[in-house]
C-alpha cells in the first residue's frame, strides 16, 4: 500500500512526538510491505512566526491532498498576546473545518500497567477503564455566531445545531457502542438549552435503528460528577463540541496520564482524517527529550485503523506499546515513583521510548 501522510508538527513538543510516531510508522511500513510518504504542514504558532497567520490556505491544502494527517500540538505562551483572530488555536479550528472532520473519537483507556497513576480509588476503577467519547467537532458554540459590543461591555457566543449535525455524531456513537458494551450515553443540558433538547430528540429517533444498544441521557454537570464517582458505568459518550472538550479532558485525567491518550477526528470518509494526541504543546519541555511520545504513536495506530483500514498494523503498534509498558519503561509523566523508576534504569526520554516501541515491532 502506498499512502501520503501530512505531518503537522506544530509547536512545543509537537515536533518531538511526531518524529517518534513517524519512526514507528516507517517500521510498520517496512514490516508489512507498505510505503508511506510524508508532507510537512506548517501550522500554529510557527506559522504565525513565518507567515503572520496560523493556517495559510496553501498549508491546509497540503493536508487536504494527503490520505491522512498527523498533528502534534499547537500554541504556547509565546503567542498569548497576538490578536484573537490569529491565535495558534485557530489553526485547529481551521484544520477541522477545512478538512470537514466533524467527529472526534477520544478513547479514555487506562492501561493496566499505569493503574497506580489513576487518582481514583481501586474500588472505583476496578480492573481498568475503557470509555470512548464521541465529540461533535465543527458546530456548536465554537463555530456559532459571536460578537462583542462597540463599548466592549457585552459579548456573546451562540450554541446552534442542526438535526443533520447531531445525527451523524449520535449515529457514530451508536455504531461504536454496537461493537463494544452496547451502552450509549448522550450528555447535554436539556433542562436549560433548546439545542440540547434537539440532541435528545435526534438520539431517540436514531435509537430505533439500534434497538440492541441501551440509550441513556445525562446532564453535563451530573456526567462530570459521575466520571469521577462511577466511571465504569460509561461505555460510549456522545456529546456537543464544548461539553465534549471539557469531559474528554476530565476522562483523560482519571486514566492516569494525558500523555497516553490518542484521538481521531473523522469526516464522511471522502477526505483525510486528522489524528493527534490530546495533550498540549508543553513548551517548557520542548526539545529536551522529556515528552511522552506514546499518545502520538497510538494516534498513528488510529490513523492506520480508520483511514487506511490496516487493522493488523494498528494492533501491532498497540501491542508494541503494551510490551514496552509491561517491561517497566517509563517517561517522566507516567513514572509514578520517579526515583524508583530512575534507580531501576527504566526512566527514558522521548527518543528512547520511540526506539523501544520500534524494537517491539
Order of strands in the sheet with most strands: 2-1-3-12-11-4-5-10-8-9
Uncertain runs are: none
Strand and helix order = EHEHHEHEHEEEHEHEHEHEEHHHH
**Percent range of helical residues:** 40-55%
Task: Describe the SSE topology.
Blueprint: E1 2-10, H1 14-32, E2 35-40, H2 45-51, H3 57-65, E3 68-73, H4 89-99, E4 103-109, H5 122-125, E5 130-136, E6 146-148, E7 155-157, H6 163-178, E8 183-188, H7 194-207, E9 214-219, H8 220-229, E10 236-239, H9 241-254, E11 262-266, E12 274-277, H10 294-306, H11 311-326, H12 338-344, H13 350-360
Parallel strand pairs: 1-2, 1-3, 3-12, 5-10, 8-9, 8-10
Antiparallel strand pairs: 4-5, 4-11, 6-7, 11-12
Structural account:
With 361 residues, this protein is an alpha/beta fold. The protein contains 13 helices and twelve strands. A ten-stranded mixed sheet has the order 2-1-3-12-11-4-5-10-8-9, sandwiched between helices. It starts with a strand and ends with a helix.
Give descriptors for this structure.
361 residues; alpha/beta; ten-stranded mixed sheet; two-stranded antiparallel ribbon; 13 helices; 12 strands
Quick description:
With 361 residues, the protein is α/β, with parallel strands linked by helices. The chain has helices at residues 14-32, 45-51, 57-65, 89-99, 122-125, 163-178, 194-207, 220-229, 241-254, 294-306, 311-326, 338-344, 350-360; strands spanning 2-10, 35-40, 68-73, 103-109, 130-136, 146-148, 155-157, 183-188, 214-219, 236-239, 262-266, 274-277. Helix 1 packs across helix 10, helix 1 runs parallel beside helix 13 (350-360) and helix 6 crosses helix 7.
Amino acid at each position: 500500500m502506498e499512502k501520503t501522510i501530512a505531518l503537522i508538527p506544530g509547536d512545543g513538543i509537537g515536533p518531538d512526538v511526531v518524529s517518534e510516531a513517524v519512526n514507528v510508522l516507517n517500521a510498520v511500513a517496512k514490516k508489512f510491505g507498505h510505503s508511506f510518504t510524508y508532507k510537512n504542514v506548517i501550522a500554529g504558532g510557527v506559522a504565525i512566526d513565518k507567515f503572520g497567520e496560523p493556517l495559510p490556505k496553501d498549508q491546509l491544502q497540503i493536508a487536504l491532498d494527503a490520505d491522512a494527517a498527523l498533528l502534534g500540538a499547537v500554541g504556547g505562551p509565546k503567542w498569548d498576546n497576538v490578536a484573537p483572530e490569529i491565535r495558534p488555536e485557530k489553526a485547529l479550528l481551521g484544520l477541522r473545518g477545512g478538512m470537514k472532520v466533524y467527529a472526534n473519537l477520544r478513547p479514555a483507556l487506562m492501561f493496566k500497567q499505569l493503574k497506580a497513576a489513576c487518582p481514583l480509588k481501586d474500588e472505583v476503577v476496578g480492573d481498568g477503564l475503557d470509555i470512548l467519547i464521541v465529540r461533535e467537532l465543527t458546530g456548536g458554540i465554537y463555530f456559532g455566531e459571536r460578537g462583542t459590543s462597540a463599548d466592549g461591555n457585552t459579548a456573546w457566543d451562540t450554541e446552534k445545531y442542526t438535526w443533520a449535525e447531531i445525527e451523524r455524531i449520535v449515529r457514530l456513537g451508536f455504531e461504536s457502542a454496537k461493537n463494544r458494551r452496547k451502552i450509549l450515553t448522550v450528555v447535554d443540558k436539556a433542562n436549560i438549552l433548546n439545542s440540547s433538547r434537539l440532541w435528545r430528540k435526534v438520539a431517540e429517533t436514531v435509537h430505533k435503528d439500534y434497538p440492541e444498544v441501551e440509550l441513556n441521557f445525562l446532564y453535563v454537570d451530573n456526567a462530570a460528577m459521575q466520571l469521577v464517582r462511577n466511571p465504569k458505568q460509561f461505555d460510549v459518550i456522545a456529546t456537543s463540541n464544548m461539553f465534549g472538550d471539557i469531559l474528554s479532558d476530565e476522562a483523560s485525567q482519571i486514566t492516569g496520564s494525558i500523555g497516553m491518550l490518542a484521538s481521531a477526528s473523522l469526516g464522511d470518509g471522502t477526505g483525510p482524517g486528522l489524528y493527534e494526541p490530546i495533550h498540549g504543546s508543553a513548551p517548557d519541555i520542548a526539545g529536551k527529550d522529556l515528552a511522552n511520545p506514546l499518545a502520538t504513536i497510538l494516534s498513528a495506530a488510529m490513523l492506520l485503523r480508520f483511514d487506511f483500514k490496516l487493522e493488523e498494523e494498528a494492533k501491532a503498534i498497540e501491542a508494541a506499546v503494551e510490551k514496552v509498558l509491561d517491561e517497566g519503561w517509563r517517561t517522566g509523566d507516567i513514572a509514578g515513583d520517579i526515583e524508583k523508576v530512575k534507580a531501576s534504569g527504566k526512566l527514558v526520554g522521548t527518543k528512547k521510548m520511540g526506539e523501544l516501541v520500534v524494537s517491539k515491532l
